[in-house]
Specification:
Strand content: 25-35%
Shape: globular
Oligomer: single chain
Order of helices and strands: EEHEHEHE
Largest sheet: 5 strands, mixed
Strand order of the largest sheet: 1-2-3-4-5
Number of strands: 5
């Protein structure tokens, strides 16, 4: 994986869609990630969308925008949204932005891993 690449994988379980991101989320790839997640959401129409960030090594403001935008999209579609297993570095970014006021963040969320 080059520094601008990121892996986007997903697993559906019941009415829940978990999207696993691995790599860096930055301005180079945020649009592509957003498009891939939104396509999965529109096709599957889950009741719950979970972004697993356990393998995200870097995230800039574009990554924060990606997370907040997926939250907004989920709310518009009546879908429950949460972030799962952010690394300490990513959790710090989310905390500094105050995302926990809007978004549920689970540190020990367990789902069958896509990797």
């Amino acid at each position: 994986m080059t520094e601008c690449e990121i892996s986007v994988k997903s697993i559906s379980s019941g009415n829940s869609l978990t999207v696993f991101l691995e790599g860096d989320i930055d301005h180079h790839n945020a649009r592509q990630i957003r498009s891939r997640i939104d396509t999965k959401v529109y096709i599957q129409r889950p009741d719950e969308l979970i972004l697993d960030l356990s393998r995200v090594s870097f995230m800039d403001s574009s990554g924060l925008g990606l997370v907040l935008g997926r939250y907004t999209k989920a709310v518009e579609l009546g879908i429950s949204f949460k972030v799962a297993n952010p690394t300490p570095q990513i959790k710090r970014i989310l905390d500094l932005a105050g995302t926990e006021r809007l978004i549920k963040i689970e540190n020990n969320h367990v789902v069958k891993n896509a990797y």
